[in-house]
Amino acid sequence: MSSSAWLQMATLVAAIVVVTRVLGAYLARVFGDGPAPGDRVFGPVERVIYHLTGVDPHREQRWSVYAFSLLAFSAASVLGLYALQRLQGILPGNPNGLGGVHPALAFNTAVSFVTNTNWQNYAGESTMSQLTQMAGLAVQNFVSAAVGLAVAVALIRGLVRRRSSTIGNFWVDLTRGVLRVLLPLSVLAGLFFVSQGMVQNLHGDRTVATVEAGSQIIPGGPVASQEAIKEVGTNGGGFFNANASHPFENPNGLTNWVELLSILAIPFALTYTFGRLAGDQKQGWVVFAAMFALWVGSVALTTGLEVGGNRRLDPAGVAQTATGTQAGGNLEGKEVRFGPAGSAVYAASTTATSTGSVNSFHDSFTPGGGAVLLSNMMLGEVSPGGVGAGLYGMLVFALLAVFIAGLMVGRTPEFLGKKIQAAEMKLAVLYILVVPVTVLGFSAASVLLNTARASILNPGPHGLSEITYAFTSAGNNNGSAFAGLTTNTDWFNTTLGLVMMVGRFLLIVPVLAIAGALAAKRPAPATAGTFPTGTTLFAGLLMGVVLIVVGLTYFPVLALGPLVEHLGV
């Protein structure tokens, strides 16, 4: 690995530690009960919004009402985005004259962006009008991320409140998440991207003359603004078909580094927010340590496998060693300006979060490298996961970990002074099992059905990996694609859309139910038999539970796909 790659990683780790502390403290004040920074600026805007929408910001909701509000908002968002795509051919803001989107594709895309998945079965620059990009996709990038943030905050309230029947107000949490968190961060990132040459205009495609006396079409559009919230909100939907490997979306190594930090900032910062709101910062650092160790491990594995190169090319005499004139390693499907190390760090980070952004072709990674990316998503997007989703996913695993610890010491498990009983564990088990059952079920059906099997361009173990990757990406609301699979068909558009909804809403509802159940409990005083959860030991137990649960669930399909391919290379 080159010295520049080591420098990129070192500065990224340092920035994550600093941002976690600073941004985490800010988030705790935004969603806390006291005054928050920026009240003079954001307060009047929020009051206008609440007045226009009829929301009483001082009236909190029970978990069931909170969940109903969230589901109603999401349903309306799906319908609105679907209609916008179907009617874009007759709407303004369409300088390239694009027609309406096919019904199955419009359904898939609407569900994809509302669930924060941002899976794209289309080429952005030739399918979506600028109005659809700005008023539809970019708006959902903001509000879908804010929904995840709201659920995480609601679960924290459930853990820390005592004998409370409410967990907050969804509409207030949604508004604050967009105005006070996602919008300011996106403005800062967008301005930086524009300064680095990223496209930001309202032009249509332009034909220009090249130096060789030919012609070339140069696309235009509001790229930088969408790229900013795409990364800050761990969304991932690219303005262009090539996503973050396109020079207009990711011009250089510096923008690549800033995009990585933007992706990782909020998920890691929320661990500090959790500790601050819980009144015990050790609890937050334990969750941070578990997430950080899983992320660093995946980055190290992926980078090592990609920098090491492809063994199949050795007999042909292809030089894969890094020299002064070449980056070395496995460069297939990667941009030269990022190299195998920069591509591997980016891929490991986006699959460890719910970010479908890619700066390289995941299908061209080595079998081992591709297996790490697939495994990252199978963890349930908790290393560190998406905005909000990563934290509430890891906290569910924490409940499972204290339950296992309670069984080992022979007493009722406790977490933050709350007894974890049968009701909470049933909901936690539902949370952990619903996605694997859905992902593996639809993957099996796609392998058996002739119409679905016809979409596989690479038969054998690699083809199985491509199908499994697609449904895993959808079920865990990631959105990245292994590619090599034709998914713009009625079967995959419909089934992937259904899996996205399951992976989003059938996880959110149990989390909110857990929050409501815990908020109503009275505190249990700590005793000599209480298992401490603010320790390094518990961080290790938490990581072990995550890895063991995922390993037992997905190992068979990993063995039949990337593992068989790796051993056969």
Provide a descriptive summary of the structure in words:
This protein is an all-alpha fold. It has one domain (3-568). It has helices at 3-30, 39-53, 63-86, 103-114, 124-127, 130-160, 170-195, 223-232, 253-278, 281-307, 339-352, 367-378, 389-409, 422-448, 450-453, 461-475, 490-519, 536-568; strands at residues 206-209, 215-218, 414-415, 418-419. The protein has a two-stranded antiparallel sheet with strand order 1-2. It has a two-stranded antiparallel ribbon with strand order 3-4. A hairpin with a 2-residue loop joins strand 3 (414-415) and strand 4. Helix 1 packs parallel to helix 9, helix 6 (130-160) packs parallel to helix 9 and helix 10 packs antiparallel against helix 12. The longest helix has 33 residues, at 536-568. The chain is globular, with a radius of gyration of 23 Å.
The figure for the number of domains is 1
The biggest beta sheet reads: 2 strands, antiparallel
Enumerate how many helices there are, as a single number.
18
Q: What's the number of extended β-strand segments?
A: 4
- Tell me the strand order in the biggest sheet: 1-2
Sequence stretches where pLDDT stays below 50 over 5 or more residues: none
Mean pLDDT: 90
User: Percentage of helical residues?
Assistant: 55-70%
Radius of gyration: 23 Å
Please identify the structural class as seen in this structure.
mainly alpha
SSE sequence, one letter per element: HHHHHHHEEHHHHHHEEHHHHH
Which overall shape is indicated by the principal axes computed on the Cα atoms? globular
- Taken as a percent bin, the fraction of beta residues is under 5%
**N-to-C CA distance:** 23 Å
